[in-house]
Amino acid sequence: MQNFTWHNPTELIFGKDTVKDLAPRLKADNIHGVLLVFGGKGTFKSGAYSQVTDMLNKAGINFSEVNDIKSNPRIDKVREGVSRVKAGGIDAILPVGGGSVFDSAKAIAAGSCYEGDVWDLFEDKSKISKALPIYGVLTASASSSEVNNIAVVSNPEKGLKISINSPVLYPKISVIDPSFQVTLPEKQTVYGGVDIIAHILERVLDGDEGSELVDELGYSLIRTMMRVIPDLIEDPKNYDLRCEYALAGAMAHCGFLSMGRTARGDFSSHRMGHSISLLFGAAHGASLSIIMPAWARYLYEDNPVPFARLGEAVFDIYDGSDEDKALDAIEALEDFFKDINAPTTLRELGIKEEDVQKLADNASRGESFGVLSKLEPEDVLEIFKLAY
Question: Structure pTM?
Fold first, then answer.
């Protein structure tokens, strides 16, 4: 296990009817005006919008809005938010939504404290020096953006979907009321769950053999998600299941699964998945259920141990060589994705075979990446071919 320092400053308020607990925190921090950032009708259907605005009105806190934040959030909405903040009267950003909304809020928070165009911060993260405070209300678990310092935003004009991260981008407070998630469409529960599982797999499959304790924590979270997702498909309004799902979602990518690792994990699949989302508008979780098994199939023969360990710890696969167990584990993971109706091929998204090269070029951008194994552009192309 490597030396490490881990610090997560986000205060988490978890449970039913906890939005009201934000009011005294906002007032204690002398917040007089906030920018409310949210998506669309789901925010109203869940009841989150009415609870948040009622809380703000009762506390005497002014608010303006930036809405219609889409899945795979775009830089144009971030720029709109920055303009609203710079017009005056806003002391903090208050996202109400899922990962896309929180990511947009973080970019707005940083861009509001920067004199140039906010996209500059994505091209040079060193320019991020400060940000407005973020007080969030989560309505859809997936990315752990409510408890981390990462934001991913798309810039279609430049053909990029990339991230920023900075210590100043942690939300100050995040409210997770799992009851807001009982109205989510089934696909959103499925794709959010895939994203949660993928964040864990990016750690336990990175080839680091000195982090067994942290890996075991990750395996337990995967087992939980593989139990909870099918149960929520059958019983979407089950509050206790929503609590498990939401808490696992926060734990998956808050940073603690990277403790003691040589690297923070191998996010090659996320990078390739971002290209699928950017170029074809696919849900992030759908891109991951396709690309992670393909990435694993491409690498397992040269790196069987992490996949074999996954097979033992999650799927009770003990027979055969490490290579045998690794392949069986990959097939079991792919079967699980199929069982919950997540896509496992690019064809299912309507992507054509001639588009595979375009995906590979966008993901690799002429450079190598990866932790378990360095992927060259030609490797990335072969993985996309496997995913087709």
Answer: 0.95
